[in-house]
Specification:
236 residues; alpha/beta
Length: 236
């Protein structure tokens, strides 16, 4: 088992930046320390997590439900940031991996690609792939983040309202991307590893704010009603 993990780390180390990412959702209502605050302050119930594989760069989104529209908006938000900061690989070959949940694939008997898939693949060279049904170990990189955030964030933080929650989640994301050394990745931070792979990478990409997807959806609907199109800026 140790040799297998070591070999996998060596394979991931050889990926170029954003060649492979994985995304998943996490239910937050089963964390005892967080649940009372969640109920009292109407805090998010679901975490949307995207993680780049080779360096471990983290992006966070939050909502009150798991849905296709929230996942699609999260994908559009990250796509926008990656294009804005010119983080796309030169050979236009990127994969974003998810499980087979309805928030990513739509109905189980859908005949056409979901809105999430179309959004992911609207970024040139990026492809949406799914794991084998039940093969959750293939999502180990993003599941690791979920395991880390429970003791490092949800079990210890106190929140005054939803905006304060998003602000502190963003602080954690900044800490994770810029300051937290990863023992499985040469004791380096995602930013240090990303610089080695792409020295001209704009640091602001790793400072992309955690996003309240419910508020982003509200803004999106308002923009549609007004005939606008720019919904990809952070609502806060």
């Amino acid at each position: 088992k140790y040799i297998t993990k070591q070999n996998l780390r060596e394979v991931k180390k050889k990926f170029y930046l954003f060649q492979q990412s994985c995304e998943d959702t996490k239910d937050l209502f089963d964390i005892p320390e967080y649940w009372p605050q969640m109920k009292r302050l109407s805090l998010p119930i679901v975490q949307y997590t995207r993680r780049e594989i080779s360096c471990g760069i983290l992006f966070l989104g939050f909502a009150n439900e798991r849905s296709l529209i929230h996942a699609t908006l999260f994908a559009a938000y990250i796509n926008h940031q990656m294009a804005k900061y010119k983080a796309l690989p030169n050979d236009d070959s990127m994969r974003c991996q998810t499980d087979n949940g309805v928030e990513y694939c739509g109905s189980w008997n859908a005949k056409e690609p979901s809105a999430y898939t179309k959004t992911i693949e609207s970024l040139p060279g990026q492809e949406h792939t799914t794991i084998f049904p039940g093969a959750h170990r293939m999502q180990a990189d993003v599941e690791t983040v979920h395991g880390l955030m429970e003791p490092e964030f949800y079990e210890i933080e106190k929140f005054s309202d939803r905006a304060d929650f998003i602000s502190k989640a963003n602080t954690y994301q900044l800490f994770f991307n810029l300051e937290r050394p990863n023992t499985y990745k040469e004791h380096k931070t995602p930013w240090q590893l990303a610089q080695e792979k792409k020295p001209d990478l704009d640091k602001r990409l790793l400072m992309t704010p955690a996003v309240d997807l419910d508020l982003l959806l509200k803004n999106y609907l308002n923009f549609l009603a007004q005939g606008g199109k720019n919904v990809l800026t952070n609502p806060y």
